[in-house]
Write a structure and sequence with these properties.
The chain has 235 residues and is an alpha+beta fold. It has helices at 60-67, 117-124, 130-140, 154-159, 219-234, and strands at 9-21, 27-37, 43-49, 69-73, 77-82, 88-95, 98-101, 180-185, 198-204, 209-214. The longest helix is centred in the last third of the chain and has 16 residues, at 219-234. Keywords: Hydrolase, Protease.
């Protein structure tokens, strides 16, 4: 709401005027509404014109709904950010226990290409492959980068592993079929020459291991049953 009629644009009369109570405990009639453009990113809709009010107030609930933004409060300031891009579209400073919206000016973004710029962009863009990174940077920034100098990224190695390796163990089965290890790998996007998409590994902790190519995951149970029967006959 605002007491300044000059700030409002698209002013129209309310079909059903209503009364509100202002901080002075007086009840005033609201008859007009409009919108205000604070900057190119913040447009306030349905702003109430209240001549008897002494300041401009913004409803955070309406602001976040209309602009699809988030408001983060800190001890001495708050930040208004676009929900999708996370770009800052407004800043507020704390004055007398009230957050006051600042007038912001648009700055200029600079791209500084340094020796380790490729590694920096690799981290900023979510650790893509070198091929994807090269395509994105060449199209978006139109700068030259040396993609041969991308440092070895520990995050990439760890995030692309299903799990960390097991600790080394000296324990070993003393006889065949006393301890077995099984692992099913797949589904791989490209089928083998036999039409298989999965690889079943069976390890006999005492002596040997074997691998089987299978066409579907449900065939793994059949192969395990067959292998267990083979183990019983061998023992």
């Amino acid at each position: 709401m605002t007491p300044l009629f000059s700030l409002l644009k698209g002013v129209k009369n309310l079909e059903k005027p209503f009364y509100i109570t202002i901080p002075t405990r007086n009840t005033v009639l609201v008859e007009k509404t409009g919108f205000i453009n604070l900057n190119k990113d913040i447009k306030l809709n349905n702003v109430l014109f209240v001549p008897d009010f002494s300041c401009n107030l913004i409803s955070i609930h309406q602001l976040t709904n209309d602009l699809n933004c988030t408001v983060t409060y800190h001890a001495n300031y708050c930040v208004i950010q676009d929900q999708t891009t996370k770009r800052t579209i407004g800043l507020c400073d704390l004055h007398d226990a009230v957050y006051v919206l600042k007038r912001t000016t648009q700055g200029t973004s600079l791209v500084v290409v340094r020796r380790d710029a490729t590694t920096l962009w690799h981290a900023r863009m979510g650790h893509p492959s070198t091929k994807t990174l090269q395509k994105c940077l060449s199209r978006l920034l139109k700068c030259s980068f040396d993609f041969n100098k991308v440092d070895c990224c520990d995050i990439c190695h760890k995030s692309k592993q299903c799990r960390l390796p097991f600790n080394q163990s000296d324990n070993k089965a003393r006889k065949s079929f006393a301890l077995m290890h099984c692992d099913l790998w797949g589904k791989y996007r490209t089928a083998s020459h036999t039409g298989s998409h999965y690889f079943l590994t069976i390890v006999n902790d005492h002596t040997w291991d074997m691998g089987l190519l299978i066409k579907s995951k449900n065939r793994s149970c059949w192969h395990l049953d067959e292998f267990l029967q083979y183990g019983k006959n061998t023992i």
